[in-house]
């Protein structure tokens, strides 16, 4: 079964999670605040995001709420 996941903080631990989920067919959105990680993030996730503190972010689609791991 595949799902959709958003990983906030996709550096060391988050990138390992993405590297595990994506090959299994899951759709992965990854977010980071580090421009230096963006190139690596582009290779690891389907939808990379770069945020800065204070940025307005897109709301998480309601369809994803049920698939989020807390």
Task: Summarize it.
By secondary structure, the protein is of the alpha/beta class. It has three helices and three strands.
Description:
- Helices cover about 30% and strands about 20% of the residues.
- It has three helices and three strands, in the order E-H-E-H-E-H.
- A three-stranded parallel β-sheet has the order 1-2-3, with helices on one face.
- Helix 2 links the parallel strand 2 and strand 3.
- The longest helix has 10 residues.
- It starts with a strand and ends in a 5-residue tail after the last helix.
- About 20% of the residues are buried.
- The model has no long low-confidence stretch (mean pLDDT about 80).
Sketch the topology as an H/E string, one letter per element.
EHEHEH
Q: Output the CATH topology.
A: Rossmann fold
| C-alpha-based Rg, rounded | 12 Å
Give the CA-CA distance, first to last residue: 19 Å
Helix % is 25-40%
Shape: globular
CATH class: Alpha Beta
**Under the CATH scheme, which architecture would be assigned?**
3-Layer(aba) Sandwich
């Amino acid at each position: 079964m595949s799902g959709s996941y958003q990983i906030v903080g996709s550096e060391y631990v988050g990138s390992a999670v993405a590297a595990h989920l994506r090959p299994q067919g899951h759709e992965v959105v990854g977010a980071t605040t580090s421009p230096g990680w963006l190139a690596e993030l582009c290779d690891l996730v389907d939808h990379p995001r770069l945020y800065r503190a204070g940025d307005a972010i897109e709301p998480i689609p309601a369809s994803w709420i049920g698939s989020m791991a807390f």
